[in-house]
Design a protein that fits this description.
With about 240 residues, this protein is mostly helical. It folds into two domains: about 15-170, Helix Hairpins (Orthogonal Bundle); about 175-230, no CATH class. It has four helices and four strands. The structure holds zinc ion. Zinc ion (ZN) binds near residues 223 and 228. The site of zinc ion (ZN) has 8 residues, from loops.
Length: about 240
């Protein structure tokens, strides 16, 4: 019986390890997604910035054209000056020229402002492009690492599965059936330690007589509360 119990403990250990490995494998695509998203959002940011830059460049050209148009208007208005007959008309024209000049000044200020913004955005985009290259490099590096990790986990999984099969071959058929049922029902934990007068699966206290029986290790004992297989860790040398 001792041998069978020891096999159950070994089986539980190896199955827990298999579950751990499978969980790790499942996490990998998620971890990769996080990095991929970071890399893609960096790219989107640059696209957005480049669109912005194009828009500002167009605005700047428009301002330049506006200055040109207003400049032409000043010339046209100045040409009218010699033709005016009265002082009133003359001052009106001068006032008009003055107001156009102010408009030009404003446009030029606005253009200058746009140029400053443009320079800043262009610097920003250069910096972001460098960041993107770095982010891409990091993503590729991590992808490779994760590929290696999956390969390593697969090898480990293979080893553990072989060990699982070996144990099952030596294990009593009825015990294995019972074990499999418990594994399904008890979230992958079918064989647990007895310690501090309690079952370490459900943490409920067990009658003292039961503790004595478990320590004898002469029969397979189940927890009366959760039905799991119980073993005494000290005897198993664990
Ligand atoms: Zn229990």
């Amino acid at each position: 019986m001792m041998d069978q119990l020891k096999l159950l403990v070994d089986l539980q250990n190896v199955d827990s390890e298999i579950k751990d490995i499978e969980n790790k494998k499942e996490d990998i695509p998620r971890e990769l997604d996080t990095h991929r998203e970071r890399f893609q959002s960096a790219r989107k940011e640059i696209d957005f910035l480049m669109e912005n830059i194009q828009r500002i460049k167009k605005e700047r050209i428009k301002k330049e054209q506006d200055v040109q148009i207003e400049g032409d208007l000043i010339l046209k208005t100045k040409r009218k000056l010699p033709e005016v007959k009265t002082n009133k008309e003359y001052s009106a024209l001068l006032a008009e020229i003055d107001s156009i000049k102010k408009k030009i000044d404003r446009f030029e200020d606005e253009e200058l402002n746009l140029m400053e913004i443009l320079e800043e955005k262009e610097r920003d985009s250069e910096r972001k492009k460098e960041e993107l290259i770095e982010e891409k490099r990091r993503f590729q590096e991590i992808s490779h690492q994760k590929e290696d990790e999956i390969a390593r986990l697969n090898i480990l999984l293979d080893e553990k599965s072989k060990r699982h099969d070996e144990i099952v071959l030596s294990l009593d058929g009825k015990l294995y059936e019972n074990y499999t049922k418990l594994m399904d029902l008890k979230k992958g934990l079918a064989v647990v330690q007895f310690g501090d007068n309690a079952c370490k699966g459900c943490y409920k206290e067990l009658p003292p007589q039961m503790g004595i029986e478990i320590k004898k290790m002469s029969s397979i004992i189940h927890c009366p509360h959760c039905s799991r297989f119980l073993f005494w860790a000290e005897i198993m040398g664990k």
